[in-house]
# Entry
Amino acid sequence: MFHTTQAQIEESIMIQPNSNQGTINPHCSICSQPISGKSHPYNDIGLTDYGIFNHLRVYHCNYCGFGFSAPELSEKTVNLFYEKQYRAKNSTFYFNFNESIPEGLGDIRSDRSFAQIMLARAYCEFDAEDIFLDIGPGRGGSFKLAKALLQRPQLYGIEFSQGAKEFYLRNFGVVSHQSIDEFIKSGKQAKILLMSHSLEHYRLSELTNLFSALTPALAKNGVLVIEVPHVDLRIHSEVRGVDTPHFLFFSKQSLSLMLEKCGFDVLFIDTCGDEFKTVGEQAFSANSLSSKMKNYLKPFYNKLHPRHQNLFRTFVRMIQKTISFRFVSQNEMKVLPVHSYGGNRDCLRLVAKKK
# Structure
């Protein structure tokens, strides 16, 4: 079992001078407009025994809505976190990569990957043996849906977590790489390149290199599909959920502008998923149960042993899944949240291609 001491963490965290005052770039990395010195508390809950999120504050641009955490953690700290800690047994995001995936698909209409892949197919021709690449596939659900919805796709993935490579190969026949550069060096290009809830995990300083690598990784007529939490701190400062372990926060405007500046044509972008609730509505919303309970119990929760934190999160997720299952069962003929677009919803979904 991997353990990191508090001293090792503090040594590897890149604390900038006067970080308590939030020393940051005075101009937005997306729109180049001045950044306000006002910051927001970083909503850290769970994983706090590692200490790597304790020093963070969140800043945002009043012009485009782009947000980011500061001070920036070191590359070593972040890579160790995702490789050893994020999916570890004592993590609140634990997943057992030794288990096997049950056969069959079930009702895939309410699956996020279903909506993402169908949207991608509307903007590109995916032929037999074309490549489907998922950067940050997590539990690998996108691979199962890709095999069901695409014609004989070649499946590739990029994931840091220990055990993930063997898990994807065993369950989905996926070829895994450690980095985008490694995928590019293999001479491959993706017809569909998916980044579903992974972009927000990158550090601010990594954005330029990331999109420089995405361009050659994407086939000429391929599409890039990105989904991130919709966190526009100009309007969501009081209604967003837990930040851990996100470092970047996107509005619709900032996400679109970033892709255009990085050499992509944005073919589609809109909000998707469940609608945001107002502060008043959140108190009565089942969907916000987890974040509300954690906010109220945060002082107590952070003192719990990681195993007990995991049990708490698992219990809440079971409640949410039960509510979601009932919603799908009772509304089979209605539009499901993963297919709903427009308005103030909790995610952003984008499709783009190379210029």
Remarks:
- The longest strand covers residues 218-229.
- The domain at 6-354 is CATH 3.40.50.150 (Rossmann fold).
- The chain is about 30% helix and 20% strand.
